Amino acid sequence: MEDQHRKKKGLMSRLSRKKKKTVFYNQGSNQSMLAVGDEVVTYEDVVRMESSAHWRRPIVLIGASGVGKGTLIRKLINSDHTRFAAVVQHTTRLVHPGEVNGHTYHFVTREEFELDILQERFLEHEEVKGQLYGTSVSAIKKIVESGRVPVLDLQPQSLKRVRYSGLMPYVVLVASPRLERLVVTRRVGPERPTRRRTSFQFII
Ligand SMILES: Nc1ncnc2c1ncn2[C@@H]1O[C@H](COP(=O)(O)OP(=O)(O)OP(=O)(O)O)[C@@H](O)[C@H]1O
């Protein structure tokens, strides 16, 4: 009996030792979304988190370029605008006629954008043709506060940031169908005039 008790105690103390070993990241503030080092977390406590009336968990899709993430996001949002919403990106590009600030994009100056980068306000950002585009934590939180579920796609390398952003998203990997299916369903049309079979292999 005592032997059994000692065995159990031994197991418990091994578990709690293991738990203590795992703090590799500074998780304190908003500033701390980046890893302190490049260590990989090998163990962490996991709890089930459901969406509630107070916190809608964002849905983040990841997957190869062209697999259909954007298409799925549009379908989901169009299925119920009162429930799901797209995340409005920030950009430094000029406003085009008919575009509305805060609706199409949050239009900001390069100085404002760069300040936001320094303050780690973006989950990810990129420069395309000399203009900056980024997905901010605040744009996602705004949707959550409106009682809707933000739906967005991110690069896999942004997952570490999203992990420490406090957003607690559901992350869904959009896997590709088989090559034969891709060739049939993504037939050449006005949208994709010259898609070759080999280019599908990048999606798989
Ligand atoms: N289930 C599907 N059946 C047929 N065509 C599809 C399907 N899903 C997506 N497509 C088409 O495949 C192309 C790529 O889709 P989409 O832009 O949604 O991919 P993506 O993963 O968002 O790509 P990226 O990350 O490069 O923006 C589009 O032309 C889209 O119309």
UniProtKB/TrEMBL annotation:
Domain Guanylate kinase-like: residue ranges: 56-204
Pfam families with a match to the protein in the record: Guanylate_kin (PF00625)
CDD domains xrefs: GMPK
PANTHER family given in the database record: MEMBRANE-ASSOCIATED GUANYLATE KINASE MAGUK (PTHR23122)
Name assigned to this protein: MAGUK p55 subfamily member 5
Native source organism of the sequence: Geodia barretti
